[in-house]
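Here is the promised in-class demo. Please do not try to memorize the tokens; focus on the logic of going from shape to residues.
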């Protein structure tokens, strides 16, 4: 699949959208923000906010302070706005519109998060907004429908823009024979779709430097895929890789002096990037 196909698939499954003006529920991750539970309790003094840990009655129940919780926002419009604002700045979770009850939606997420473990001892964090679009892209149509069925509309911020997803039908709660598990192959296949979302965000951020490219998003994604293949896996490292490509052109890593620095043994990703960033500067430094 080429760069254009990854981007078009992502936009079809999880298209960009605007910040939601209304949400009934949120799933937020207490492990991401140590002050989040304090904010929930603070909101409860002003509005009728209810919440439940998604670690209830599981082997992670004692770790509930470091896991996802479901928050009922149907009578808490101010807290919903506050959460939406936080989500544009930090990847703390997602927002939902759903006509299910709190108990039904809680059961739905527990079913997916805990019964759907990809590897024993690992946790499928469906509330992870930076990777949710990529996850939806690798699920089969039936499996994706089963997951999305919990809400009529899903909203999340992927660190660059808001995205949304909707099921074909928002039906009553049922746990059919559809397995909730996500296979290792599916998890591995998520990478290029996550990079597609990064490419869209980066191409907007660097649009002036990319103005001479006919399809900036596609060009950026190809560079990010090259960076991923070279072993750079975090968004910060990949953005530094992209800046090098913007400065020195596509395929820069196959040319001197970058090729030798990239293959330098026993160095960290950060050290290799720093060496490549400084290589040209050192060449032109005054003697």
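The designed amino acids, position by position:
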């Amino acid at each position: 699949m080429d760069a254009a196909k990854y981007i078009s698939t992502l936009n079809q499954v999880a298209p960009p959208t605007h910040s939601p003006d209304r949400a009934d529920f949120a799933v937020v991750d207490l492990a991401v923000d140590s002050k989040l539970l304090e904010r929930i309790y603070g909101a409860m003094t002003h509005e009728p906010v209810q919440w439940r840990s998604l670690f209830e009655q599981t082997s992670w129940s004692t770790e509930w302070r470091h896991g996802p919780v479901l928050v009922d926002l149907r009578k808490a419009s101010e807290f919903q706005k506050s959460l939406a604002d936080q989500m544009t700045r930090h990847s703390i979770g997602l927002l939902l519109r759903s006509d299910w009850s709190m108990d039904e939606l809680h059961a739905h997420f527990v079913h997916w998060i805990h019964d759907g473990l990809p590897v024993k001892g690992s946790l499928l964090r469906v509330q992870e907004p930076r990777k949710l679009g990529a996850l939806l892209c690798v699920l089969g149509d039936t499996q994706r429908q089963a997951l999305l069925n919990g809400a009529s509309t899903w909203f999340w911020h992927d660190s660059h823009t808001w995205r949304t997803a909707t099921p074909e039908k928002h039906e009553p709660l049922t746990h059919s024979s559809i397995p909730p598990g996500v296979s290792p192959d599916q998890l591995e296949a998520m990478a290029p779709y996550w990079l597609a979302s990064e490419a869209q965000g980066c191409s907007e951020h660097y649009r002036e430097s990319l103005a001479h490219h006919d399809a900036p998003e596609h060009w950026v994604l190809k560079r990010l895929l090259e960076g991923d293949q070279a072993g750079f896996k975090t968004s910060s490292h990949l953005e530094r890789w992209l800046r090098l490509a913007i400065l020195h052109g596509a395929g820069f890593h196959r040319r001197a002096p970058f090729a030798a620095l990239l293959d330098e043994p026993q160095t960290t990703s950060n050290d290799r990037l720093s060496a490549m960033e400084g290589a040209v500067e050192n060449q032109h430094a005054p003697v």
